[in-house]
Write a structure and sequence with these properties.
Elements lengths: L1 H17 L10 H10 L4 H29 L2 H13 L2 H10 L3 H16 L21 H7 L7 E4 L3 E4 H13 L1 H7 L3 H22 L1 H9 L4 H17 L24
Antiparallel strand pairs: 1-2
Length: 264
């Protein structure tokens, strides 16, 4: 089954990233203090994964995103992005329910119904005209609402910045999405084709939306890894309604859009 494969993959990925770092725990009091402040005990391994992700981004994803931007006119890109984002609404709806946010769940369901029908499968943003603003919801947020702490910071291969809680959430969200289950009804070939196409479309759309922002973050950072960690945490704290003491930086960079395969 697709769902069990995806969940197993993400959980295994988290373990692969985390376990090797246990051999490089801090030796001095200053190192322990720094790790406590950043909640990044696996930094040495995280940086290796981050560098590989960054290399893949420079080599493959960013050039493809530029090509996509150059070949596809903005109105058509907007239509494609709308479809991609509309397909995630069932996952948002499910997590709104799991969090007990019934008003948000109703709004999300209404958005999906309106944008899918009147908006042509999400190609056009019609729901805002009906006072149905976009809601946020993922299983990492759901676990947070249940009192589960984030755990140490992780950089996942191909998936980018995360933490233990949100890495598990990625796998559960994949299982929640109905589209793969529907595609599986057509057989293994259709299921695999859909999975590859879906991942590619999400990565390309989200990377194209962040070409300038991610460039600014990279070029303006003395330590790109630390800046990305900070931006991710600021954005995640805002999603969760938490207060952060970190100074906001690079507001033109939307880390939610950039949460896609093959990002630093």
């Amino acid at each position: 089954m697709r769902s069990s494969r995806h969940l197993t993959f993400v959980l295994a990925l988290s373990a692969i990233v985390a376990l090797p770092a246990c051999s490089s725990m801090p030796k001095t009091a200053s190192e322990e203090a720094e790790i406590k402040a950043t909640n990044d005990p696996f930094e040495s391994v995280n940086r290796v994964v981050f560098d590989v992700n960054d290399f893949m981004d420079r080599l493959l994803l960013r050039p493809l995103a530029e090509l996509y931007r150059g070949m596809i006119p903005p109105p058509l890109r907007d239509r494609i992005a709308g479809i991609v984002k509309n397909m995630n609404e069932p996952v948002v709806f499910a997590n709104n329910l799991l969090q007990g946010e019934l008003n948000s769940a109703g709004t999300t369901l209404g958005r999906f119904a309106v944008n899918t029908t009147l908006g042509g499968a999400g190609m056009f943003e019609v729901a805002n005209e009906f006072d149905l603003p976009k809601q946020s919801g993922d299983f990492g947020q759901t676990l947070n609402s249940w009192g589960i702490k984030s755990g140490p910071y992780l950089v996942l291969p191909l998936l980018g910045p995360s933490n233990i809680r949100d890495a598990i959430g990625l796998g559960v969200d994949s299982v929640m999405s109905p589209w793969g289950h529907i595609a599986a009804l057509g057989g293994a070939t259709i299921e695999d084709t859909f999975m590859i196409s879906s991942i590619a479309a999400n990565a390309l759309v989200r990377r194209e939306e962040n070409i300038e922002g991610l460039d600014a973050l990279r070029e303006g950072s003395l330590d790109f890894y630390a800046q990305m960690r900070s931006v991710f945490r600021q954005h995640r704290a805002k999603q969760l309604g938490e207060v952060t003491t970190e100074t906001p930086k690079f507001e033109d960079y939307d880390s939610e859009k950039a949460t896609a395969p093959i990002v630093p």
